[in-house]
Amino acid sequence: MYKYDQYDQAMVDARVEEFRDQARRRLEGKLTEDQFKPLRLMNGLYLQLHAYMLRVAIPYGTLNSQQMHALADIADKYDRGYGHFTTRQNIQYNWIKLEDAGDILADLAKVEMHAIQTSGNCIRNISSDHFAGATADEVVDPRPYAELLRQWSSFHPEFSYLPRKFKIAVIASDTDRAAMRLHDIGIQIVENDAGELGAAFYVGGGMGRTPMIAPCINPFVPLDRLVTYAEACLRVYNRYGRRDNKYKARIKILVHEMGAEEYTRQVEAEYAHLLEEGVEPPFAELERIRTYFEDPLFEAGAGEEIDRSDPDFAVWVDRNTVAHKETGYVSAVISLKPVGGIPGDATAEQMRLMADLAKDYSFDELRVMHTQNIVLPHVRKADLHALWTALDEAGLGSPNLDTVEDIIACPGLDYCSLANARSIPIAQRISERFAANGKTGTLGELKLKISGCINACGHHHAGHIGILGVDRKGVENYQLLLGGSEAQDASLAKITGPGFSEDGIVDAVETVTTVFERERQDGERFLDTYRRIGMNPFKEALYG
Amino acid sequence: MAETLRYRDDQPVDHPAVTVDAFVDQSNAQAVRIEPGDDTRELLPHLQRLALVEVNFPAFGDGRGYSSARMLREAGYEGELRAVGDVLVDQLAYMRRCGFDAFEPDQQFDMDDVKAAFERWPEVYQNAADDRTPIWTKRHP
Amino acid sequence: MRLLTGNDLKTGAVTWWTGSDWSIHVEDAADVAGSEDEIARREEAARRVNSPYAVDAELQDGSPRPSHIKERVRALGPTVRPDLTLKPADPEIGNWVI
Questions:
Q1: A80 Cα to chain C: minimum distance (Å)
Q2: So what's the pLDDT on residue A234?
Q3: Any chain A CB within 8 A of the CB of C13?
């Protein structure tokens, strides 16, 4: 993975000092809260429901054991012993004091980490495929391109006061594991017929109040012009994105209102202009970054055999390990979704264990999934049993990847001042219901996503089953949606009808799975059956 | 309005800054004020008679002025480029990078804070409108 | 009744105006109806509170209970982590919030 040189380190160190100075001026009263707020947001520091919340960046979801240990230490030293992994591959701490924030950023800088631009109206953490570098289906590892864009977007002098937040995802396979089409800019590295690599740019996707799937505005930008094209996209947005209404300020609204064709025309014009201005880094820089992402030293001829005599282990292998490009290896998924648990939360102790396991079994590398689990990308099949035993003991061994128990949930009203309803208790009760009725396995792949408000941080629009918490005259109420997908077959979930109470929504989810079991054909997933039979059978079962 | 900070050697222009529409119409105007909603590129055919461009920031969160400034420098404008309005000391470094060389903030700056702001960044990642060498160029000389 | 609430500037803790001071316990909160804007302005200018605002509440068993569930979660702590709330040992607290 990428390692800072003295330049990268100088930048994060300078940022720590800048923030210390800003926090001091705030505490002394030289900055009002209105003036300080955008500055602290650009360092990931929110004023949230219970305290300050700090969102630490995990660039394209990749970190090593030293960094994971540092995250654990921060949880213990400055917070309340745990952290929350998010739907953008970051980590959040919920109980931060402003007077500690500078020290926390300094501790992060020591391990090449930061909270730069994890909030605010600027370019946010660039996300990527959590199986990058391990999967056989990528044309190249997308992460060097994400790293190049990370550096380009950090402290960008022109694009730090955008109309609204800006989220970029980079993938390099036809299978979209990063919800690329639901980002402000999604990039897929592709190979053309001549075997050359280029970047397909998708611009104007997003969730929130008005979910939209990004159109492809350029199917092949040469890789030695990647930054120039991104800059053109951002400049058109900075100049013309709406600033009159916070809920209409994302680029998806601009692309939609202007039309993708006109937006593309303006970008291409700006791109042609910027090509004359020398904004692109030298290609040697991309090659330099790529050297950090070469394959680890895989053991040649590693064994393919797995001893499946332990039935619990066998279930975990079947559900939570994913094929690897190298013989004898898999990627292993550590579930942060124990039945009845808080999705995405990990204690400091669990973080330390995951760090040590990564060191022992995965070439010292971990990934954060946007679905709030952790990946050990390169595990020898021969090591799986030892790994699983350790995970199982620590409550990290739930064999539920991509099942109804693998719920994505935002923090909701328990933690977030934007929320209208609690999402975590719904996730807990649903996972408990399905663990109890024993159907998790038979239902198969079922992506259930819960958001506590219309901002959709739980990605409910992209759930096979989505749940949206709303406030109905001061009482929490839950809308049920069906048929969303965040993959390359992207679709937006549709609402079933009137909302449900807290008890009602758990029953409703069970009801729709019953309809699925009744109607399913030939190994269909829930999503496939829904797409084939439509909403009506589900509506009938729900509302009679 | 507070004191203007100026980082140029030449004499400040004494002309009143007119709107973009007025400037394009008046052949003897030398100073223009760009509002966030203006299309800065309308000025590009007239750069040779421009000695002062003011870019208004009615609210510091409206970042359109950064693009306006940078585009003017890209087009070869070498006159004074002045950020006016709701400009905070924390924006100075980025503004300088976008080509601003004068600042007329609504609220007086603390000059110690100004010095700290301009000395904050030992390096820069990107090419912009200033003459700082980006990190990636330093890595591959 | 109206309660004035905000966050402690340094620690971020949720605080409630008691009539003379800021407390992390909503039970100590005073009715500020009629003077909420004045108190908020004064206290924020003195940096004794950050981002204050007023909320509706009713007296329940002699103690203020914010009318909106969001403010009750704010007053207490996350319902899913009783150990992290202000009343970890109180088994009835879930009912007070919800």
A1: 8
A2: 98
A3: yes
